[in-house]
Structures are given as structure tokens and as C-alpha cells.
Specification:
- This protein has 337 residues and is α/β, with parallel strands linked by helices.
- It folds into two domains: 243 residues, 3-Layer(aba) Sandwich (Rossmann fold), CATH 3.40.50; 75 residues, no CATH class.
- The chain is 38% helix and 13% strand.
- It contains ten helices and eight strands.
- Strand 1 and strand 2 form a beta hairpin.
- Helix 3 packs across helix 4 and helix 8 packs across helix 9.
- The two termini are 33 Å apart.
């Protein structure tokens, strides 16, 4: 990815914040979605939004389906979700955004939420889509969603090819400890940590009303960073001993050699959340993994052009990479039933 940041947006923080708030997301109208509510295996629910483009639901057509797994506290309305929808629309692709539990605007029912290593949830969603969809499937995960998607590909190994042709992770903290400590310091702590906790804490407290005794309420109220939040809520609620255990077992970086389908890992080296020193080099990953590590771009930013800029450059580059591998897989013959 030969990305060059606009001169008027210097630095990783500006390249992160401006695109999320002000940059253009699409050409023309914002995408329209059709929502499906799916009942999970544990009697909970998730909401999946499908792109509607004036025709019958595209997900049943024999075309390529692009699945986007959003980041921490993201949704189908996130700036990057709109930009990927725009790419899908321009290339006549079906497009789906499954919401992690509690992120679709309604609190989920079960005594759990979602986390960075949620590969079982990713696998269930992709398998459901595989059963519905006749054509190729590609998936992209953004930030948290990308780490979880890579963990799915790692756990599946060669069997992943029966479900997806290729996957991509964008701005993902694949070394969760490095990312977790980075977001807990300085400017990151004042701005990004506060932003995330402003939505995560109230949702956790509502979860406690649903399931009394699920975690220590006083300890949660005292949490001032993601390390403390994960120690009180995310880790124990999802079966981890503590934050260190969660960050260690959920990180995708140690297992990148296990991936057996084409996988793209995109990280800007000035991402405020993901220290460049924590990123893998090509010799640390398997032959199926491609690394793009441009010098600039921020966290899920990659703004392009004159003010107010747009955020379509990254989805276009990633989407074209995924489509290239769909074409290669189609040429070699189908890998799914």
C-alpha cells in the first residue's frame, strides 16, 4: 500500500481523529442497510446489517460477499464501515456488517459482551453467511475485529478456505499488550481511553443489572484505563484469568504462521494505538500473510486529498487486494460446497 498522508494532516493523531469526524466517506448517498437479527447458539442475539442498493437482497445472489467486522464500540455506521460499503457498491458486491454483541444499539441478553479474541463468534457468523451465500466470501476486520478475524483464520488453518477466499485486518492491535499499554498513556489516555470508557462502562453496568453478581461494580467504576476495565469485566466475563491472560491468549501476532488462506495485515507505523515496534516483520509470519506497514495513516484513518479529505483510499486498496484473491481462487476452482 503506497499511502502518502496529506501534508495538511501531519501526525498519527490528526490522521486518526480527522477522518473519523470530518472526512468524506462515500461517493454520493450514504449506504442503506437491511437488518437481520440472528439467534445465537447460547440463546442470545446479534444484528447483521446488509447493504441495500435498490435491488432485492444481494446476499442471495452468486456474487462476492464482503463481510466487515467492526472495531471496539464500532458499528455499521462507523466511517470505515460506510467507506467499505461504498467500495462494495461500486464493485457490485454484497456487503454485510455483523455487530458484536451490544454494538447494534440494543444491549444483548447473555452474561457476556465481546472481546479481541472472539474467534468463535467470528466463525459462527461466517459459517452462517457461508450457508446463505452462493458466491465467494471475503472478510475484513478493523482494529479489534481484525485481530479476532485473524485469530479465526489461525484456529481454522487450511479449513478456513471452505468458508472464505481471503481475509484482511486493518489497524489491528495484534499484540494486545503493546496496544493496551500504549492507549493507556499520555494523550491516548486523555482522549481515546476516555472516549471508549464513556460507552463501555455504562454498557457493562447495564449488563450487571441483567446479571447481578457478574462482576465487581465498585472496581469497574474505579477503572481509569482499558487494562483495569479488562481486568474487571472483559477478562473474567469471557473466561480469562485476568488482563494479562486475556491479552496473551487473544493476540493474533504469535500465531501468524498458522494462517493458511491469503491474509492481509495493514498497520500504519504512526498508529497511536499500535506501536510500530510491536509490528511483525515478514520473516515472523507465514507465506500466506502479506504485511502492509505504511509510514502514515494513523488508526483506521488513511485520509486522502484536499480538505476535508476522504477515507476511501484504504478500503479501495484493501478491497482490490481481496478481489484479486477471489479471482485467483475462482481460477483455481471452488473451495466450498
Amino acid at each position: 500500500m503506497n499511502y502518502v498522508a496529506p501534508p495538511w494532516l501531519p501526525g498519527g493523531n490528526l490522521q486518526t481523529i480527522w477522518p473519523a469526524l470530518y472526512a468524506r466517506r462515500v461517493v454520493g448517498e450514504l449506504p442503506q442497510y437491511r437488518r437481520e437479527r440472528w439467534t445465537t447458539r447460547d440463546a442470545d442475539f446479534i444484528d447483521v446489517d446488509f447493504l441495500v442498493d435498490g435491488d432485492p437482497p444481494l446476499v442471495s445472489a452468486p456474487t462476492t460477499l464482503l463481510v466487515l467486522f467492526h472495531g471496539l464500540e464500532g458499528s455499521s455506521a462507523s466511517h470505515y464501515a460506510h467507506a467499505f460499503a461504498d467500495f462494495a457498491r461500486a464493485h457490485q458486491m454484497a456487503y454485510a456488517v455483523p455487530h458484536f454483541r451490544g454494538c447494534s444499539g440494543e444491549l444483548n441478553l447473555g452474561p457476556r459482551a465481546y472481546h479481541s479474541g472472539d474467534h468463535e463468534e467470528i466463525g459462527w457468523v461466517l459459517q452462517c453467511l457461508r450457508q446463505q451465500h452462493n458466491g465467494p466470501i471475503v472478510a475484513v476486520g478493523v482494529s479489534l475485529g481484525g485481530n479476532a478475524l485473524l485469530r479465526w483464520a489461525q484456529e481454522m488453518g487450511a479449513a478456513a478456505s471452505a468458508v472464505a477466499s481471503a481475509v484482511a485486518a486493518v489497524s489491528s492491535p495484534i499484540d494486545l499488550a503493546a496496544g493496551g499499554h500504549a492507549i493507556g498513556k499520555g494523550f491516548n489516555r486523555l482522549v481515546y481511553t476516555r472516549m471508549f470508557l464513556n460507552t463501555m462502562k455504562p454498557k457493562a453496568l447495564r449488563k450487571l443489572v441483567q446479571h447481578p453478581g457478574l462482576f465487581d461494580r465498585d472496581a469497574l467504576l474505579q477503572a481509569k484505563d482499558l487494562y483495569a476495565f479488562d481486568n474487571v469485566f472483559t477478562a473474567p466475563v469471557h473466561g480469562f484469568k485476568n488482563t494479562e491472560d486475556y491479552w496473551s491468549r487473544a493476540s493474533a501476532k504469535p500465531h501468524l504462521r498458522s494462517i493458511k488462506i491469503p491474509a492481509l495485515v495493514v498497520n500504519a507505523r504512526n498508529d497511536p494505538f499500535v506501536p510500530a515496534s510491536s509490528l511483525p516483520s515478514q520473516h515472523e509470519v507465514g507465506s500466506h500473510v502479506t504485511l502492509w506497514q505504511p509510514a502514515h495513516g494513523g488508526h483506521v484513518g488513511f485520509p486522502h486529498g484536499r480538505p476535508p479529505a476522504h477515507v476511501r483510499a484504504m478500503p479501495q486498496a484493501v478491497g482490490n487486494w481481496l478481489l484479486h484473491h477471489v479471482a485467483s481462487a475462482t481460477h483455481q476452482g471452488p473451495t466450498h460446497g
